[in-house]
Design brief:
alpha+beta; 68 residues; binds zinc ion; Metal Transport, Frataxin, Chain A; 3-stranded antiparallel sheet; 29% helix
């Protein structure tokens, strides 16, 4: 897993019909379309590999390979 540009992560989430709300500070809460899962992304130019991994793990209802 590599670091990714934030805008690409956001585009991929939106392509899966995920929605988001502003969380605390620079955190965005993202919700999957099934409504059972959520994850947090820190707004930054680059999203670290650790965050990418946790986003994928926390949104297990999305199709395999949705983010790469
Ligand atoms: Zn879900």
């Amino acid at each position: 897993m590599k670091a990714m540009a934030y805008r690409l992560v956001r585009t991929a989430l939106e392509a899966q019909h995920c929605t988001w709300k502003q969380g605390k500070g620079d955190h965005e809460k993202w919700y999957c379309p099934c409504g059972k899962h959520q994850t947090v992304i820190t707004q930054a130019r680059i999203v670290s590999p650790g965050v990418i991994r946790s986003v994928i793990a926390q949104l297990p209802c999305l199709p395999e390979g949705w983010l790469k």
